[in-house]
Each structure stands twice: as C-alpha cells, then as structure tokens.
Here is the input.
Amino acid sequence: MAGGLSIERVDACFGAHVHGVSIAEIDAGTFGEIRELLTEYALLVFPGQHVTLDQQNHFAARFGHLEFPAAAITNIAPDGSVLDDQSHDTVKSIRGNEGWHHDSTYMPVQAFGAVVTAEVVPPDRAPTGFADMRAAFEALDVAAQERLRAMTAKHSLYYSQGRSGYLPTQRDDGTYAMYGYHDKETPVRPLVKVHPDTGRENLLIGRHAHEIAGMESAESEAFLDELNDWACGDDRVHYHQWEVGDLVVWDNRRLMHRATEFDLTNPRRIWHTRIAGDPSTEAADNHRAVS
Ligand SMILES: [Fe+2]
Here is the structure.
C-alpha cells in the first residue's frame, strides 16, 4: 500500500496495477504518489476508470505539457464503419505500430510518455506490449555497454513506415499529411540515454532508429534488428490485455511498446494523450538549439 493506493505488480521487471483511486478525482498529494510510482514502475494500469477525454487530458497534463490531447487510435471510421482495408492510411498507421518503439523519437523532442484509455476492445483484446530498456541495458556486459554508449542513430517515421510498407498516401507535392512526417532535420539520438528522473541508463532504440553513425546502412540495420530483438526478450516484456475503462500511463523514456495484430473486422478504439518530453533532456542531439 502507498497511502490509499494498492499496488499489484505485474509479472515483469516493471509495471503495476493500481487500485483504490479514482483518477478523475485525485488531489495533488495522490498525484504525487502516482508520479513516484511511475518513476519506480514505468507502467501503471488503473482498471475500471471510465474517464472522460477531458479527465484523461487533465490527468496527463499533471505530468507535463501535452504533445497532443486525446487522439483516437481506432479502425472505426467517422461514419461508424469498421476499416479492415490494409491500404487505408489509418490501418497502415495501426499496423506500423506493431513494431517496438519509443513514441516521438522521430520528432525533435521525444515524448515523456502517454496516458491511454480503452473505449472499445475487440474480442482478442488487442494487447499492447511494453519492454524495459533499462533492464535491457543493465543486462549487457560491460564491453557491450561501452560500445553502445558511443553510438548514435537517426530516428524517422519515413524510415520505419517505409521499411514496413506502411507509408501513407502521398499528397500531390510528395509530402504526407499524417503526424510526424516533418521536414526538419532527421533527429539524431544516442543509443544509450540517462533517464532524467532515475539517473540510470536506458537503451534508446526501436523501429524508428536507423543509420548508426559510422556504419554502412545494411550493417546498421542488421545490428539494430538484432539489438531490438534481444532487448525485447520475454523476461523484459509485459503485454497488457485491455479491458474497457482501463487507463494506462507509461514512461516512454524507459519503456518501448508495440501494438499487436488483431482481427480488423472487429472495432477497436483507444484514446492516446501524449505527454511532451522536457526539451532539456529529451531533445535530439541535433535539435537542442531550437527546441
Ligand atoms: Fe506508440
């Protein structure tokens, strides 16, 4: 117990379910406890919250500025129909997210984390996977840690969605209308990053990372594929099985996450509020001056 909160660890080296609190009604003291729990566990699941989108955004904004307010991640079209056409831009975005990643590493400032709620859950639950990049780094031998500390990589949605075959439809001028396809310099980030709250080192990798400085593209791709696969090994991974009303918050500076494939003929809608990273610690190496 922590105050009125009760903590139930999940079966992983991170993550907890939190009971005994209504997120819509928390005071500053309870938020302070939750903020400490997030630093400790990196993934907090609050079952049965059923918050409104305003309440979700308000809770997320307690952690910091919002990169964007609640946005639907869904295969339900505005007219209510269910999108299962793999060529639809929305479906491409959903499918691309099945690769392990940190959010917004392709932006000048990567995200602090996110608050996500589940409104419509398909029969197979469409679980979301989380993987602990602090545990991964700490599991490496000293020589590998030292080698990785010296590496940087570019991060881009053009790369990750292009490689997986899920780039959205191009506009007439050759650009893309969807979030994250910016024309700024491609962010360059270290492969090992010190977490600003814990002071401990974490791998910073995932599907957006490519072109390690000083390596040939093919060599870099093979190196990162192997590192991603190893880092997201079973003992460092937890899959959350969604229930309607769940509210989840995670620390994007420590965890990677991924969507999982589900039967797209069934509707699903979750709401994602993205919490902006602090530019003083989350800006890309080549975006520090302007962020
Ligand atoms: Fe994501």
Remarks:
- The chain has a mean pLDDT of 95.
- Helices lie at 28-41, 53-61, 89-96, 133-139, 142-149, 157-164, 217-231, 279-282.
